[in-house]
From TrEMBL, chain A:
<dbReference type="InterPro" id="IPR006722">
    <property type="entry name" value="Sedlin"/>
</dbReference>
<protein>
    <recommendedName>
        <fullName>Trafficking protein particle complex subunit</fullName>
    </recommendedName>
</protein>
<feature type="compositionally biased region" description="Low complexity">
    <location>
        <begin position="101"/>
        <end position="131"/>
    </location>
</feature>
<feature type="region of interest" description="Disordered">
    <location>
        <begin position="101"/>
        <end position="138"/>
    </location>
</feature>
<dbReference type="InterPro" id="IPR011012">
    <property type="entry name" value="Longin-like_dom_sf"/>
</dbReference>
<dbReference type="GO" id="GO:0005737">
    <property type="term" value="C:cytoplasm"/>
</dbReference>
<dbReference type="Pfam" id="PF04628">
    <property type="entry name" value="Sedlin_N"/>
</dbReference>
Automatic annotation (TrEMBL), chain B:
<dbReference type="GO" id="GO:0005783">
    <property type="term" value="C:endoplasmic reticulum"/>
</dbReference>
<dbReference type="GO" id="GO:1990071">
    <property type="term" value="C:TRAPPII protein complex"/>
</dbReference>
<dbReference type="InterPro" id="IPR011012">
    <property type="entry name" value="Longin-like_dom_sf"/>
</dbReference>
<keyword id="KW-0813">Transport</keyword>
<dbReference type="Pfam" id="PF04099">
    <property type="entry name" value="Sybindin"/>
</dbReference>
<dbReference type="GO" id="GO:1990072">
    <property type="term" value="C:TRAPPIII protein complex"/>
</dbReference>
<dbReference type="GO" id="GO:1990070">
    <property type="term" value="C:TRAPPI protein complex"/>
</dbReference>
Automatic annotation (TrEMBL), chain C:
<protein>
    <recommendedName>
        <fullName>Trafficking protein particle complex subunit BET3</fullName>
    </recommendedName>
</protein>
<keyword id="KW-0813">Transport</keyword>
<keyword id="KW-0931">ER-Golgi transport</keyword>
<dbReference type="InterPro" id="IPR016721">
    <property type="entry name" value="Bet3"/>
</dbReference>
<dbReference type="Pfam" id="PF04051">
    <property type="entry name" value="TRAPP"/>
</dbReference>
<dbReference type="InterPro" id="IPR024096">
    <property type="entry name" value="NO_sig/Golgi_transp_ligand-bd"/>
</dbReference>
<dbReference type="GO" id="GO:0030008">
    <property type="term" value="C:TRAPP complex"/>
</dbReference>
Length: 185, 157, 188
């Protein structure tokens, strides 16, 4: 499983981006998306395209964690969202690795076979979290991850030198998000 | 008990930062900042001269007490009061060298605790903690703080 | 005064409590605003913080004496203990460690394990703040101001700060001299 995590300000400015892979089930924590290295913008594109759905979903209930809200079938990308009360949105794109069976069907992106060795993908897919992006276990893991990132986000936003709406450059925050990813996903 | 007058000197001691003077018995009220003092036995002088004398006295007395007391804990040493045939002078000094002096009649008990309370509950609360009041009261304006004066009046009564 | 007694005064002195985040955010805002006002001239910001602390210290000492009820310290060692175990304890609820005494007993270091002023803080990464700004410099001023009121002229500065990536937060305090009593004005 590969992840792309983005924080967007209430005015849709991207504040923070990070890509990482699963560390569960022997994963090495390196992202292996189905796009070629040169097409990483696809992640951003997919994430941002889910904003409309997010804006509808945010009124359905009062919860901050909105679970899985959107899917982009061509890339098998799933989007989970988390809303802070102040309107910042945390979006997590997760993309299961190529399963041997899906390699042929996912040929919409021909170059995708360039990414990720077969060995590592099968290994990652054996984990329960990675196996099914919509399973309750995955939802729970993502919720824990979101909550941890939220805590750290609050701390970072409390720094007197951080201004609302400014890109989060803090290396400390990045490390902590990476750690949270390692811990839960 | 009768309180004749009350002075506060800051660490520079050039001018008293607060003076309250009364010749009335405490039960019938006290007037603050009255310019003339006529405690029995005190000569009629301007307040200014009076306060200089008072300061000079307590300053010398304090130094004398410290010298005689030896160097060991001279910092802790201070005199509490002295008595003349007509009045009793009570003295309290904080470690920041703010000096509180009160002149009362002979019958009054030790006012050391009272002066300490004035410092803790009134002076610190109303004067020091007032952000608009300067830390150094120079130029003879004094504390000039209504809340402090009122509370002091209540406290002494 | 024994060290134990000093810690006890620090423990037992009751003070009004205030929310720690409020203090942290207030102080952080002040520093950030100063940085902005002085166009990130951090030397100047340090100076201003020190000055503000000095003015606070001159008042705070009275409050300190009134609340703790302690008398004058017999020597500078006792003063250091008093600062760490009573002063910082009642006002910031931390107890820095007193250490690194100079051989003449006129210089010591305060090591802060925990600094409530600097919670959440990350210095701006403009390449200079890390080397020039002493975020908690107000504390130096507070010590300078309050000790001056009790007849000690001191010099205080930070030598390291965890915010800068150092191991510890350390403040160096050195006694310059004891201030003699001012003489009363001459009678003319």
């Amino acid at each position: 499983m590969s992840y792309y995590f983005t924080i967007l300000s209430p005015t849709d400015t991207p504040l923070f981006n990070i890509a990482f892979g699963t560390s569960k089930g022997g994963g090495d924590g390196i992202a292996r998306f189905r796009f070629p290295e040169t097409a990483q913008y696809m992640n951003q594109f997919i994430i941002h395209s889910s904003l409309d759905i997010l804006e509808e979903a945010q009124w359905t209930n009062g919860a901050m964690y909105l679970k899985h809200i959107d899917t982009y079938p061509p890339a098998a990308a799933y989007i989970s969202a988390f809303l802070t009360p102040s309107g910042a949105r945390f979006l997590l794109l997760h993309q299961p690795p190529h399963l041997p069976s899906s390699t042929s069907t996912g040929s919409g992106l021909g170059s995708s076979s360039l990414l990720g060795s077969a060995g590592s993908t099968t290994r990652a897919s054996s984990s329960s979290v990675a196996a099914n992006p919509t399973s309750p276990q995955t939802e729970e893991a993502v919720r824990q991850f979101m909550n941890e990132v939220y805590e750290n986000y609050v701390k970072t936003a409390m720094s007197p030198f951080y201004k609302q709406g400014m890109e989060i450059k803090s290396p400390v925050f990045r490390t902590r998000v990476t750690a949270a990813g390692k811990k839960w996903l | 008990m009768v309180v004749y007058s009350f002075y506060i000197f800051d660490r520079h001691g050039k001018n008293p930062i607060f003076i309250a003077i009364t010749q009335l018995t405490v039960s019938s009220g006290m007037h603050l900042q009255t310019p003339l003092a006529t405690a029995p036995g005190l000569h009629l002088r301007s307040t200014d001269d009076d306060s200089k004398l008072v300061f000079g006295t307590v300053f010398s007395l304090r130094n004398m007490v410290r010298k005689l007391g030896g160097d060991d804990d001279r910092a802790l040493l201070s005199f509490v009061s002295f008595t003349t045939s007509q009045y009793k002078l009570h003295y309290y000094e904080t470690p920041t060298n703010t000096k509180f002096v009160m002149l009362t009649d002979l019958k009054s008990p030790s006012m050391r605790i009272a002066l300490q309370q004035i410092y803790i509950n009134l002076f610190v609360e109303y004067v020091v903690k007032n952000p608009l009041s300067p830390t150094e009261h120079t130029g003879g304006v004094g504390v000039n703080n209504e809340l402090f004066e009122q509370s002091l009046e209540q406290f002494v009564l | 005064m024994s060290a134990n007694k000093t810690s006890r005064i620090g423990e037992e002195t009751r003070v009004d409590k205030v929310n720690a985040e409020l203090v942290t955010l207030t102080y952080g805002t002040i520093v950030a605003q100063l940085c902005q006002d002085y166009d990130s001239d951090y030397q100047e910001v340090n100076k201003q913080l020190d000055k503000m602390g000095y003015n606070i210290g001159m008042r705070l000492i009275e409050d300190f004496l009134a609340k703790s009820g302690v008398g004058r310290c017999a020597n500078f060692k006792e003063t250091a203990d008093m600062i760490a175990k009573v002063g910082f304890k009642i006002f910031l609820n931390v107890t820095p460690t007193v250490t690194n005494w100079a051989s003449d007993n006129n210089q010591f270091s305060l090591i802060f394990e925990d600094n409530p002023l600097a919670d959440f803080v990350e210095l701006p990464d403009d390449g200079r703040a890390q080397d020039e700004l002493w975020f908690s410099n107000i504390l130096c001023g507070v010590l300078r101001g309050s000790l001056e009121m009790v007849q000690m002229q001191i010099e205080a500065h930070f030598v390291s700060d965890v915010l800068r990536g150092d191991e510890t937060t350390e403040m160096r305090v050195s006694l310059v001299r004891y201030i003699e009593d001012e003489m009363p004005p001459e009678e003319e």
